[in-house]
Write a structure and sequence with these properties.
Largest sheet: 6 strands, antiparallel
Number of strands: 19
CATH class of the largest domain: Alpha Beta
CATH superfamily of the largest domain: 2-enoyl-CoA Hydratase, Chain A, domain 1
Distance between the termini: 75 Å
Shape: globular
Radius of gyration: 28 Å
Helix content: 25-40%
CATH topology of the largest domain: 2-enoyl-CoA Hydratase, Chain A, domain 1
Structural class: alpha+beta
Order of helices and strands: HHEHEEEHEEHEEEEEHEHEEEHEEEEHHH
Number of helices: 11
CATH architecture of the largest domain: Alpha-Beta Complex
Number of domains: 2
Length: 443
């Protein structure tokens, strides 16, 4: 029997009332949950102010509230990962100076490993490199001051100074039982990011020591000059001990060798942090075989270039496992000249490989001394990389090959006879030409 219009109206009213009650119930439940969360947050803020109050009233020295808050900010960010930090106005200015490619200091890229100030890589032609400082060296003291608990910004400030002034470092190198004292004379560090030469007739060598403003344009200009000397039959791109630099320049260098395809993409929590960069066919890309040299001192932007050229099958990557810094740091300017450098995303190669904590595994592994990895492991411990840093991000991939050789310092001009990795790369370039199978993209 079908319901009458009056009965239908009655059921509609009952169902509407039940829907309203359910909405009120769940709304109140959600409101209660929100209030619990706000109460918890308020409790944490109260705890923070209580701690600050106790410190101000009882600490052995008189402290200003401003000093305590700034210390709290730095402490909060330092607990996130090795690459995020709060920058004072002075530190923010120094960071901007660094990217310009000229500053006074000793010339090294540093990070924190297990609370110790550690060298990622010495800068080419710097006092640090001349003194034999290498990737993985721990800096225990700077002018007698212990670096334990010192931030990288504080350490960088101590290492920089007027040209001609001296700084004493207490260095502990891998495989050594006792630290050694090194005295460095500060100099103006002018990083010439690109150097090229002709190793042999038709075989070019391009060294990129850091990715700075105009690095990609300078590389294109210098490679064109090599081409004018004689048509290139092969080219070597040396990214060893290159600690990275500007992302747009890493993209530009990759694009210089690629006619099409993905170069790198990023993933973060926010939609605007997910970016991708693709190559464009400009018509002037070198088409000769290419070998890229890397080692444990190759980090960040260097790994982007090596990963892109490897995934796009444009180059053979030779050397040892790279550093593994695959995180993106964004700089947020704050009030009164302060800034926040914060990790906001991770880099991925064209084939979706995360660089973070694993780095780029070379196609052909050649240790610094030309020995195979298993022989070298008997002589010295592994070089440190991103995955060794405290609070580093995990990769999430199963592919975590170990590197085995220490990074090579730049050798004399005659690289073909003094650098086993360059010598092997040269042999590969000749073999590729002989096989008439250059690794290149078709337009």
């Amino acid at each position: 029997m079908s319901a009458t219009p009056k009965q239908r109206r009655k059921w509609v009213l009952i169902l509407s009332a039940l829907s309203c009650l359910a909405a009120i119930f769940y709304g109140l439940d959600g409101l209660a949950l929100k209030q619990d969360q706000e109460s918890s947050t308020f409790g944490q803020f109260k705890l923070f102010t209580d701690v600050m109050s106790v410190v101000r009233e009882n600490y052995v020295q008189n402290l200003e509230t401003e000093q305590l808050i700034q210390g709290a900010m730095k402490g909060m960010i330092s607990q996130l990962d090795p690459h995020s930090s709060v920058l004072t106005p002075e530190e923010f200015k120094e960071m901007q100076i660094e990217t310009s490619g000229s500053f006074a200091g000793v010339g090294m890229v540093i990070t924190l490993k297990d609370g110790l100030l550690t060298v990622v890589s010495p800068i080419e032609d710097s006092p640090a490199q001349a003194a034999g400082i290498r990737s993985g060296d721990a800096i225990l003291k700077i002018d007698g001051a212990a670096t334990q608990g010192m931030t990288t910004e504080e350490a960088a400030k101590r290492l920089r100074g007027p040209k001609g002034t001296k700084v004493k470092l207490l260095i502990l190198s891998e495989g050594m039982q006792e630290p050694r004292e090194v005295e460095l004379v500060r100099d103006v560090i002018r990083v010439k990011s690109v150097k090229t030469s002709m190793l042999a007739p038709g075989y070019g060598y391009a060294r990129v020591s850091q990715f700075q403003e105009n690095t990609s344009k300078e590389l294109a200009r210098q490679v064109a000059l090599l081409q004018k000397q004689t048509p290139l039959r092969g080219l070597m791109l040396d990214l060893r001990n290159n600690p990275g630099g500007l992302l747009d320049q890493a993209v530009g260098v990759s694009d210089f060798f690629l006619k099409k395809g993905l170069i790198v993409y990023t993933k973060g929590r926010r939609a605007d942090q997910e970016l991708s960069f693709r190559a464009k066919n400009d018509g002037n890309e070198p088409t000769c075989p290419l070998v890229v040299l890397v080692n444990a001192g190759s980090a960040s932007a260097s790994e982007i270039v090596a990963g892109a050229l490897q995934d796009q099958r444009r180059a053979v990557v030779l050397g040892s496992q790279t550093f593994g810094k695959g995180s993106v740091q964004s700089v947020f300017p704050l009030d009164e000249g302060w800034a926040l450098r914060l990790t906001t995303a991770l880099y991925y190669t064209p084939k979706g490989r995360s660089i973070q904590a694993t780095g780029i595994a070379p196609d052909i592994t050649v240790a610094e001394g030309g020995e195979t990895d298993f022989k070298r492991l008997k002589k010295e411990p592994l070089t440190f990389r991103e995955r060794d840093l405290e609070r580093h991000f995990e990769n999430g991939s199963e592919d975590k090959k170990e590197g085995a050789s220490r990074p090579a310092l730049d050798g004399p001009v005659d690289l073909l006879t003094t650098d086993p990795q360059v010598e092997r790369a040269y042999q590969i370039l000749k073999a590729l030409e002989a096989l008439e199978a250059p690794l290149q993209q078709k337009g």
